[in-house]
Write a structure and sequence with these properties.
Chain lengths: ~350, ~300, ~650
């Protein structure tokens, strides 16, 4: 067992819990184990068990367990609702009231921030359920459009980190030895880099011509920050899997190394990868919001929840709804994503349950 | 144990140097400089400025100068802030960040462990729901949303506390920043403690202790808590990393002259010596703290041996 | 079948209810108060002022920032000080001064009781030292250009050289190598003293000295410091080439610069050309007195609180960086009896809402200019502590004229005419729309020219003429398919007010021309760099505040020959028009010449003027002696705390004397 495996996990706090349970664990050889390994072991056990029970595979089992967990169902539905609302909402609103997210009224009297459900002369009105921002733009439409961007950033950045992390970790784990040592050392070094400054420099170095270009930059920047833990998890998995029989069989029949890694081993690591990815999305969204807070996130005319909330902070003394609506929406979505992630983890490995 | 520590230290030092080098390179690649004003400077004046700060020398000379300084623990003088040495700036801003950070973490530990333990002991009671619900919120609400809301209520409307600024310790000014910063950690620690305690309370050795006739209190304090604290201790490592970014946000919202704020300003100003100084300092601090955490972990759980 | 909710589910439900309940906190009752926030005066005579960014230094000539400028006014004094209402020069360390007949030479008579904060007397030599230091190339002051009016000031600062004949000791003269076709009249300050022309009215002048003779000789030719630049100039001019053969190059020294201490209490300044506004310039921090002995002793550490010595009404008490700078009354100050504030705390904040929140809760007594965020104006403007006044600052859009399609003047004019500046000013609520390049209503008697008004029809026509026809769609909106949108953008530095402005322009161009110009924001220093190097395509934000109260401080932006004014536009004729104006003695005639130059600039359309700024800050009613003047510069010695509510300022204090 290599020294690095004893290091404390730097992934989410809950993985730290996993580590402690593994250490307290059921089997003696799980002491001195890393969390990734614990996941890997249980995963493999489940896989084996799945093969013995006729017909039912790991995934179908997991799905059934997931559905039984009402909270994660709620999480799934909430996330799906928010996604749908973000995608279709602006369109529907435009059809219903004529307001687009970036429509700035030409009438000077409307270029102000109105409270929710209020019309310019103070009476109740349905036109702006969330009020308007400083330039008279409908806040509901903006929050929904912000959802598009936030979710897109979250998902795509996570995908980027997934691709990089899985490949890296799989290669490191499979090749082992000095290569693995070097690659993981690099990960350690990268961990200690304060990523704030990297992102600031990155975003100012490769200047983007358009707001969309800036988005792509963000995907790359955010993705390149979260792949580290993914790599560690996958590596731990691969370390345990690579001495399994099916791998030995594949090697014996002459399958090339890249094929072994990516066609045989990686698919078996997907359980924890999916869990971690689902838990990464909210982290990435929070990071994007943090970058928007500093001014490096999405640029106008695009807006994310983070940039909407940041704009709203400016006026909290007078127009608090500008912060509260994007903030609460974002919190609810992160909330639901966390539930979904918890549920997925429970579904894929019941031994990691919290209650 | 000693071997482990030495080995870790030997790895740490090159890591820090690499960190600094990468930062230095990235700064150099970024456009912009620290002396730009609204009006473009006449070339002669710009030349004067560049000479003064040694910017006209070849890059390897500048790099050697920077690294040499670092090895002597001299990070040089800030480019943007005339006459102030980086060491002095760090020495000045560190107490601010440290005070807020430590207080926030202590508060999080105190409230989190207490709430988590009670939630575990009184499982499924109203207390359990309420505190776990708050914990869920604490994790999902970003700190730059929570902070201003607290300011809105307790400062701008009730006039109880100032909305921002640093006025030393102790003062009313630290209340809101500490609360905002500790929220997310309170949440995590409460959850971790609760989960850990529940796990432990079901285990054999607790049953043994209870059947021996020990009071509930003794059971909790002497046995359960120790086991339940393990995840909290191991969480401290990553928590410190989060603390940095959390501190940046809190320091900016509440206008506190701490390391995080200087860090951001330095990045925006392309103030190379200050950036490198803070980066090096934080890297060292993080690595040392992680080492301490691992040692504490080993102390708490006798089954782990390095 | 719905089962009993599990504990976790109940927890989640509770959390969601809490979240949703939070949204109901949107109802914040607007308090109907006279003032914005608490109005309890502090117990001591202490002013807490929100100053903005952290000052980068306490050394006056070095920094050009606004927060530093306000601090320097408290700590250091110059020959003159700003009048708190009009910013005209009023006596400070100089108790009187005289100027010669064409405003090319000034004589200042210092008072005898001015002292440093350590008790030493302030003498004329201190000003000579301070001016020379401000111009020294080693100091690399960003403000040095303000002193270029002083004879050989620019040459010294740029490290230029004279050309001398080693045998005769004679220097080559500038007038022998002048390139301009016009006859450049010599200023009185350079004419030999024996010419018999009356230089000063009455007896304002000072005794003659050998240095004075030197100043009154024709200007010497100066050549650049670097060999390469020199060679380039020499090779281009045959006459020059012949003249410099066998000559030696002598660096211009500090002692050659046109400032002289005639005696302990008399300072004489010789300018290279007439500059009627020069006495107003002297209140700038570049020209304030700094302590020679302290600087020579401690070098770059002289501004540390333990070492620093100041010449103004206040001295440094404590500096907590990134938090506050505390200054206290200087007991040795010559006017100490009239300084009522015991201390001033300059607070550092990074953004406006923070400042406003501190002010509201009563933790600060006044905030810096441009701090009330625009959306707050509806609420704050109606309060009696809101300070509203005309400001000598303009906002405009620079156009990069070096690249197509913006190198076509028709395109530039079209974009200018497609923005409705009147509506924009209305939305900004306090500013005035601007079609010129000098602020409106600031310079009395200045015949400000007018540029093109808002005319979207004409704009579309011009675009069509330039080859980018604008078509109207069925729904009434416009499109301009041929216009190369990927060749333009609008860049600005990240700040919410800038973003709002950018989005407005974008919407206007889209609505009136059918062109959606992409926006690009960036961090401040990156932005300045991009703009200065013309690395942007199309448009960039520009904001300029006056360095001194004269239209020239704005028009000067485009007079640099290398064209690095952020737009790439430069025209020799324009520079010559400005030079001619500055040489004119009659003030009104000078204004007319400058206005003509300004019209020339507007016709060339390298900028799109947007608005004249207005001051926009708040101060508590008990703070007296602070006025919303055009430059937002406050001589702190005149400020005091009033405890009798009957004498408070209910609204903007009267500015007319």
């Amino acid at each position: 067992m290599m020294e690095e495996d004893k290091q404390t996990s730097h992934s989410r706090a809950d993985s730290a819990y996993v580590e402690s349970s593994a250490i307290r664990g059921r089997r003696d050889d799980l002491i001195h184990t890393s969390p990734e390994l614990a996941i890997a072991e249980t995963d493999v056990r489940l896989a084996e068990r799945g093969e013995m029970v006729s017909g039912s595979s790991l995934w179908r089992d997991a799905w059934r367990r997931l559905l039984k967990n009402r909270l994660s169902v709620f999480g799934m539905i909430a996330v799906a609702l928010v996604t749908l609302a973000s995608l279709l909402g602006p369109f529907i609103i435009r059809k219903a009231t004529g307001y687009t997210p970036d429509y700035i009224p030409t009438d000077a009297a409307l270029l102000k921030s109105f409270p929710p459900f209020t019309s310019p002369n103070g009476t109740f009105s349905w036109t702006h359920p969330m009020g308007t921002d400083n330039q008279g733009r409908d806040l509901l439409a903006r929050v929904l459009q912000g959802g598009q961007i936030s979710l897109m950033v979250g998902i795509i950045s996570t995908l980027v980190s997934l691709i990089i992390g899985v490949s890296y970790g799989a290669i490191a784990g499979y090749l082992g030895g000095r290569v693995d040592n070097a690659l993981m050392r690099l990960v350690d070094v990268l961990y200690s880099l304060p990523y704030v400054i990297i992102i600031i420099v990155l975003l100012s170095m490769f200047r983007s011509q358009t707001a969309r270009g800036q988005l792509v930059l963000l995907f790359v920047a955010l993705g390149s920050v979260s792949w580290l833990t993914m790599a560690r998890i996958v590596r731990g998995q691969v370390l345990s899997l690579k001495n399994q029989e099916f791998v030995l069989a594949a090697r014996a029949t002459g399958v090339s190394t890249p094929r072994i890694i990516f066609r045989h081993i990686v698919p078996n690591t997907l359980g924890p990868v999916v869990v971690y990815a689902t838990l990464t999305i909210p982290t990435v969204m929070l990071t994007e919001a943090f970058l928007s807070f500093l001014g490096f996130g999405v640029q106008p005319p695009l807006a994310s929840w983070g940039s909407l909330a940041t704009d709203g902070i400016q006026n909290i003394a007078i127009f608090p709804w500008q912060l509260i609506f994007p903030g609460v929406t974002m919190a609810l979505t992160l909330f639901s994503l966390n539930f979904l992630g918890d549920g997925l983890r429970d579904a894929l490995d019941p031994q990691m349950r919290k209650f | 144990m000693l071997r482990f520590i030495t080995r870790r230290l030997l790895i740490t030092i090159p890591t820090i140097l690499v960190v600094i080098t990468v930062t230095w390179v990235l700064i150099r690649l970024a456009p912009g400089n620290f002396y730009s004003g609204e009006k473009r400077l006449p070339p002669a004046i710009e030349k004067n400025i560049r000479e003064k700060y040694g910017l006209d020398k070849p890059w390897y000379e500048q790099y050697a100068k920077t690294m040499g300084g670092i090895l002597r623990w001299d990070f040089g003088t800030s480019l943007k802030y005339e006459g102030q040495s980086v060491n002095a700036i760090i020495a000045r801003s560190l107490p601010v960040s440290a005070t807020i950070g430590i207080l926030a973490y202590l508060l999080a530990l105190g409230v989190g462990i207490t709430a988590g333990s009670i939630a575990a002991l009184k499982q499924n009671s109203k207390w359990d729901y309420a505190s776990m619900a708050l914990a869920m919120l604490g994790i999902s609400v970003p700190n730059f949303v929570l902070g201003p809301i607290l300011v809105l209520i307790f400062s701008l409307t009730l006039y109880w506390v100032p909305p921002s600024r640093w006025a030393g310790f102790p003062s009313r000014n630290i209340i809101l920043p500490v609360l905002t910063l500790s929220a997310i950690y309170m949440a995590y620690i409460a959850r971790l403690t609760r989960a850990g305690m529940l796990e432990v309370l079901r285990s054999d050795y607790i049953r043994t202790a209870r059947s021996k006739g020990l009071s509930e209190r003794a059971v909790v304090m002497r046995h359960a808590l120790r086991g339940g604290l393990l995840p909290v201790v191991s969480y401290t490592g990553p928590a410190l990393a989060f603390l940095l970014t959390g501190t940046v946000v809190v320091e900016r919202i509440f206008a506190l002259p701490g390391l995080g704020n200087y860090f951001i300003q330095a990045s925006l100003n392309r103030d190379e010596p200050l950036i490198i100084g803070i980066v090096a300092f934080i890297a060292i601090a993080l690595l040392v703290m992680n080492l301490l955490v691992d040692i504490a972990y080993a102390y708490l759980d006798p089954r782990i041996r390095y | 079948m719905v089962t009993v909710p599990t504990p976790r589910e109940r927890t989640a439900l509770v959390a969601i209810i809490m979240l949703v309940a939070a949204t109901s906190s949107c109802q914040v009752a607007a308090k109907n108060e006279e003032f914005f926030g608490k109005t309890t005066p502090p117990t001591r005579n202490v002013l807490r002022y929100i100053n903005g960014d952290e000052p980068e230094t306490l050394d006056p000539p070095i920094s050009s920032g606004q927060p530093e400028a306000r601090i320097f006014i408290a700590l250091y004094e110059g020959l003159v000080e700003y009048d708190p209402k009009t910013l005209a020069p009023v006596p400070a360390i100089a108790e009187s001064w005289g100027v010669n007949n064409d405003s090319s030479e000034y004589v200042f008579h210092l008072r005898h009781n001015a002292r440093w904060s350590n008790g030493d007397p302030i003498v004329a030599e201190d000003f000579v030292y301070s001016f020379r230091r401000g111009l020294s190339p080693e100091l690399a002051s960003r403000n040095a250009y303000l002193a270029y009016y002083i004879k050989y000031g620019q040459a010294y600062n740029e490290g230029a050289v004279f050309v001398r004949n080693p045998q005769t000791g004679e220097f080559l003269l500038e007038k022998d190598f002048a390139h301009s076709d016009q006859e450049v009249p010599e200023s009185l300050s350079q004419k030999p003293l024996s010419s018999g022309e009356a230089e000063y009215k009455g007896s304002d002048s000072a005794p003659n000295t050998s240095f004075h003779q030197f100043m009154h000789s024709p200007a010497r030719l100066t050549l650049p410091a670097s060999e390469k630049a020199r060679k380039k100039l020499i090779d281009a001019d045959a006459k020059l080439q012949a003249a410099v053969r066998d000559k030696e190059f002598v660096p211009v020294r500090a002692e050659d610069v046109g400032i002289e201490a005639v005696d302990d209490y008399t300072v004489r300044i010789s300018l290279s050309q007439p500059a009627p506004y020069f006495s107003g310039l002297l209140a700038h921090q570049l020209f304030r007195a700094v302590p020679r002995k302290v600087i020579e002793k401690y070098g770059e550490h002289w501004t540390e609180p333990a070492h620093i010595v100041t010449s103004g009404a206040f001295k440094v008490k404590a500096w907590r960086p990134y938090s506050e700078l505390v200054v206290e009354r200087n007991p040795f100050y010559w006017d100490f009896a009239n300084v009522r504030l015991e201390e001033i705390h300059f607070y550092t904040t990074q953004d406006n809402p923070t400042a406003m929140n501190l002010y509201k809760v009563g933790e600060a007594d006044a905030v810096l200019n441009h701090t009330v965020p625009n959306p707050w104006l509806d609420v704050v403007r109606s309060k009696k502590d809101y300070m509203d006044g005309a400001e000598a600052a303009i906002v405009y859009v620079l156009i990069n004229v070096t690249r197509p399609p913006m190198n076509d003047i028709r395109v530039r004019r079209a974009f200018n005419m497609a923005i409705d500046k009147v509506t924009y000013s209305q939305s900004r609520r306090i500013t005035k729309p601007l079609s010129a390049f000098t602020p409106e209503g600031i310079f009395p008697g200045y015949p400000q020219p007018k540029g093109d008004p808002f005319n979207p029809e004409q704009a579309r026509k011009l675009l069509g003429e330039a080859g980018f026809p604008v078509m109207q769609r069925a729904d009434g909106s416009y499109e301009c398919a041929k216009f190369p949108v990927d060749q333009v953008e609008y860049v600005f530095n990240t700040q919410s007010s800038n973003r709002t402005m950018a989005e407005f322009f974008q919407a206007q161009w889209k609505q009136n021309l059918g062109i959606t110009v992409p926006l690009r924001s960036m961090e401040f220093r990156t932005f300045l760099n991009v703009r200065a190097k013309l690395e942007y395509k199309g448009f960039a934000l520009g904001i300029w505040g006056a360095d001194y109260m004269d239209p020239f401080t704005f028009l000067n932006l485009f007079s640099t020959p290398t064209g690095d004014n952020g737009s790439g536009w430069w025209d020799q004729r324009y520079s010559e028009m400005l030079d001619a104006a500055n040489r004119t003695l009659d003030k009104q005639k000078r204004y007319e010449l400058m206005a003509r130059a300004e019209k020339f600039l507007l016709d060339a359309q390298p900028v799109i003027p947007i608005e004249t700024s207005a001051t926009n800050w708040v101060k508590k009613p008990y703070v007296k002696g602070m006025y919303p003047n055009a430059g937002s510069l406050f001589p702190w010695k005149f400020v005091y705390i009033e405890r009798d509510p009957a004498k408070w300022d209910y609204g903007v204090p009267a500015m007319a004397d």
